[in-house]
Write a structure and sequence with these properties.
Elements (H helix, E strand, L loop, with lengths): L14 E3 L5 E3 L4 E8 L5 E14 L5 E15 L5 E5 L3 E4 L6 E16 L4
Antiparallel strand pairs: 1-3, 2-4, 3-4, 4-8, 5-6, 5-7, 5-8
Length: about 120
């Protein structure tokens, strides 16, 4: 099927994500809205948000593009660099990145994830 999906025209179900295995500190709550899934699930797009906390967000077998809609976060990369992302910022997290997110209050992003074959 060939189609165009406009996020504003959809009302996908809000899905609460279990953060227990990823949480480093605090009690972050993650909610995701999946707006699109490809037929084989190798391409997905949607919206995600998090409340305050520190947590892992590994990019295993996937590449993710993000665009911050609201709020701010600090993302620590594999080399220990802290990158601040805030509303209006777009960025890519490459396969193999093992970021640690620090959210002081709230952050909301649009995301696109492409699965990559295991080496």
């Amino acid at each position: 099927m060939t189609t165009l999906i406009k996020f504003a025209d959809q009302s996908p179900e809000a899905i609460s994500q279990d953060t227990s295995g990823a949480t480093i500190s605090g009690t972050p709550e993650h909610t995701v809205w999946v707006h699109f899934k490809g037929a084989d699930d190798s391409f997905r797009a949607g919206v995600w948000e998090s409340t305050a906390g520190v947590f892992h967000g590994p990019q295993n077998d996937q590449i993710e593009y993000c665009y911050i809609l609201e709020g701010e976060a600090s993302i620590r990369t594999n080399d220990g660099k802290d990158v601040i992302v805030k509303a209006g910022d777009g960025f890519v997290m490459d396969n193999g990145l093992q970021p640690v997110w620090t959210v002081k209050e709230h952050v909301k992003k649009q995301w696109v994830i492409v699965s990559v074959p295991k080496a």
